[in-house]
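Fold this sequence, please.
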Amino acid sequence: MRARYGCPYVFAVLLVAAVAAGCGESVELPDLFIVQRTGGSAPLTLVVNEGGAVRCNSGPARQLSDSQLVLARGVQEELEGPAAKHLALASRPGSVFSYYLRDEKGTVRFADNSAGQPSALRHLAYLVLEIAQKVCRLPGEGS
């Protein structure tokens, strides 16, 4: 036996589907990570999301290039182990920058000259500089 649905039912289903789809509103994608860099000329906070949007120091969202997004995702994957272990490396004398990263796996703290840095931390420091210069266009970043 087949069920018969009238126009009000079909309209209600379409209405629910439209509301569930957000009626054209933007969907917030999850953050890949938040990184804070202190030292140098000014502190910097970057919030990078899965879709490639980045907020620089709580400013408006800006878009990473495809290659920068691939790099950011790669860095996040490299940092899964250290973040899950809440890696914290001390700075040595002469340090300029300190970094703090938080993602869904955990946190990482290190300085630009911390001993025993895995390559993932150098990759993160490079990514932060790249985004600060080319995306955020922050003064004093050598852009």
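The radius of gyration is 21 Å. Helices lie at 7-20, 66-78, 80-84, 119-134.
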